[in-house]
Design brief:
Two copies of one chain form a homodimer. Chain A is an alpha/beta fold. Helices cover 45% and strands 12% of the residues of chain A. In chain A, the strands form two sheets. A seven-stranded mixed β-sheet of chain A has the order 1-7-6-5-4-2-3, with helices on both faces. Chain A has a four-stranded antiparallel β-sheet with strand order 8-9-11-10. Chains A, B: Keywords: Decarboxylase, Lyase, Pyridoxal phosphate.
Chain lengths: 483, 483
């Protein structure tokens, strides 16, 4: 019989791994944020062939430090300001560990009722915490579900919207006419990806204009495009409004967009991947204005700003009918009495994959550990730190601030007096690369109006004033060095 | 500041969770395999509203026993014989815990080089362990990637195949003509789901006939359908051959199917979700006959029979070009020097979602803990137990065995002398329901040739002769009780 790890061995190695993680948490600030590895470094330090005989778990732990850690970019580092944060926290890690330990697969209600019903309840809780509308709750025609990512949620929304728009014709017979999808230049790339995957095609993703200052979608232009496309015989499938764009956290005017969608009978998906969770704070709840009245589907990521480790996207639909109709197939080997009764939810019909992990455990652990108060406090810390950094940037004549941030992202650039636009952009990117190469902090960039901006996204659990102060000092140093 | 769990608290609660899981492993055999919960039971025992204040982790652990456990169907129970096994093992759980503890997001090489390069190396190892062809290795034009599920791999294969078939036209302009996909009646439902999602449509999933005894796809019928469809102006996108069907572990004749695909220039995807991993044993390697010569893409699930907890599907492509071309989009905020250099793999372009967890850690832990020897031994144990059960069924005049199993699944039914087909099927389902309701074991059913069969799938780490003996005794008891 294969040498399975015994429960006693699991206890021993499990403690070692827990201690290893706690040690890592204690010293994470001492690592360079961005991995200093060059392409191929990690690969070259791993054996070319798998072991013939088992090696024991000490060998794995030893290689973790020797091989893996030099190739880690530390997303939980308090000076990680790149992209958006990817949450993690003690309760989330332990919730995830419980999920792995139970090892259940919740494709159907019957294959672990708790995996389904805890998810249902936690998503109802989470809707309440964010002030989302009752029609997203599971006791009506809608409901919530955990998806792998905002990309997965966007694809699911497209599939549901398509099903509603054509009565299931494309799912049955294939796409046979031009279908269109509406985004702005600021919408996340996952929407174009979803359009390609769904057979709609990138060229039929219509790019609605944005306000040049706020970068918010122009509802009048959306209206005109929808009318034009319908008149030309296309089938408009879905509009995606964004609450907190990836580039700059711009917020599309959901109420006005929703009115347009309603008039044209088009599905409105709201992608609030980053910003939606900010609504745990009543004073930020207006980011979701219009969602209650108009959104057919909505997604936000506890795995970004809300202390839950990847993957955990919360998605709600106002009517689960089109989603389930589009994705449900019942082969004989999945038939069971509970599903046949219609009394239960089978979440496999709400997502692309069949199988599913027990992800509700980690979101449940996070909500219970922090409570609503603790979650609000975490978001407010990020908002306060971002505002503080922004005010220093605004006060410094060597820098240009894009705008006062409302959330945790600050966009800005060095002014570079005397350089033309292209020269200035190259200099800004050099500052970023020098900062990232130093290992002191990690930030990324975007482009607005053709100009490169630096992005500082604040939201890791360990980030404090001191880390933001140090980041600002280093940014000024590297900028001065190139001026 | 929000009350984050300190490293010291993480040590304390982490040990409690590790001990909780070890305790669970020790007593798992004492639980009813199938949850006895009725719809709504778990929901009703959870508070209607989220907590305002944080509750501490003891509260979560207490509710785990009180609320969650009664709603668990124990997939790791040694008497779990339903569906296919969903693997778990100590090293896998700990590898997953390391992934959660590191909390990195590996969408790009740069966002954690080790997350990408360890995956690359481990997939090369795994291809070697299974005797898969060199052209799947990452040092050529192909390569391996971890997907969330065989469903996700199937969708990715469809997208890549479509891209190759039409030069990217559908991804660009949308599907504008009839596209077709080829499966058999025994192919997993995820292929129809992928066809719906990809805009091909369920009606364009062509069902190739099967041999009535072996249930293997008929290559001559496939050939005829491909010719017919192409002559009618359709664009054949992909053929899916299955190695180990979900219903009965039938194996399609990949070499003959591959010849047909090659003649018609159609992408061949091999779905070996369950059976593919059996190839760790040289004596079972012929399940993958033809894969080396003909498969454009191939998927098998370590998270089924190979002791790795969900989700972990290993997928390989012979040429990564069409997959990456179909799924790659590069917005400014994801641009980085490493990606621009072309020297690195960005696995985000190999999958539907953008974000990705560090799943290679758990597969690496499993391979190193067990070694090739231990993995073979685990598969051989399942094969031996299945063969033993099958021989007893074959020797019992009250039962009909479908066929001698080569892998870990045994399909059979009570003979029910004197009952007509429909009556016999109802009686067989009643036996199954009584067995499942007893909590002693959990098995599921399928239909072959219009008749209900029971499925006993063996493969949990803890399953021994005693568990299979007990299952067989209980099956005979319940059958006798209804005879």
């Amino acid at each position: 019989m294969a040498a399975h790890m015994t429960p006693e061995e699991f206890r021993r190695y499990g403690r070692q791994v827990v201690d290893w993680i706690a040690d890592y948490q204690e010293k994470i600030g001492s690592y360079p944020v961005l991995s200093q590895a060059r392409p191929g470094d990690v690969l070259a330090s791993l054996p070319a062939h798998p072991p013939e005989k088992g090696e024991g778990f000490e060998a794995v732990l030893a290689d973790l430090d020797r091989v893996v850690m030099p190739g880690i970019t530390h997303w939980q580092h308090p000076s990680f300001f790149a992209y958006f944060p990817t949450g993690a926290s003690g309760p989330s890690i332990l919730g995830d560990l419980l999920s792995a330990g139970l090892g259940v697969q919740g494709m159907l209600w019957a294959t672990s009722p708790a995996c389904t019903e805890l998810e249902t309840r936690v998503l109802d809780w989470f809707a309440e915490l964010l002030g989302l509308p009752d029609r997203f709750r599971s006791d009506g025609p809608g409901g919530g579900v955990i998806q792998d990512s905002a990309s997965g949620a966007a694809l699911a929304a497209v599939i549901a919207a398509l099903h509603r728009a054509d009565g299931g014709a494309a799912g049955r017979d294939g796409i046979a006419r031009r279908h269109t999808l509406y985004v702005s230049s600021q919408t996340h790339s996952s929407l174009e990806k979803a359009a390609r995957i769904a057979g709609i095609g990138a060229a039929n993703v219509r790019v609605v204009g944005v306000d040049p200052v706020t970068l918010a979608m122009d509802p009048a232009h959306l209206d005109a495009l929808l009318a034009e496309d319908a008149a030309a015989g296309a089938l408009p499938v879905m509009v995606c409004a964004t609450v907190g764009t990836t580039s700059t956290t711009a917020v599309d005017p959901v109420p006005a967009i929703g009115e347009v969608c309603r008039r044209h009978g088009v599905w409105l998906h709201v992608d609030a991947a980053y910003a939606g969770v900010a609504a745990v704070c009543p004073e930020l709840r207006d980011v979701n204005d219009g969602v209650a009245e108009y959104a057919d589907s909505y997604a936000t990521n506890p795995h970004k700003w809300l202390l839950t480790n990847f993957d955990c996207t919360a998605m709600w639909v106002a009517d689960r009918g089109p989603l389930v109709s589009a994705l449900s197939i019942l082969p004989e080997y999945l038939r069971n009495r509970a599903s046949d009764s219609g009394e239960v939810i089978d979440y496999r019909d709400w997502q692309v994959p069949l199988g599913r992990r027990f992800r509700a455990l980690k979101l449940w652990s996070v909500i219970r550990w922090y409570g609503a108060e603790g979650l609000r406090e975490h978001v407010r810390t990020g908002v306060r730190l971002a505002a503080g950094l922004a005010s220093r940037i605004a006060a410094d004549p060597a820098f240009v601030l894009l705008e006062e941030p409302r959330l945790g992202l600050v966009c800005f650039r060095p002014r570079w007096d005397g350089l033309d636009g292209a020269e200035a952009d190259r200099a800004t990117l050099r500052v970023m690369e020098r900062l990232n190469a130093s290992g002191d902090l990690y930030l990324t960039h975007t482009k607005v109006g053709g100009r490169v901006l630096l992005r500082v996204a604040i939201g890791a659990a360990g980030t404090t004033d001191a880390h933001v102060d140090a980041a600002w000092r280093r940014i000024r140093e590297e900028t001065a060095a190139l001026s």
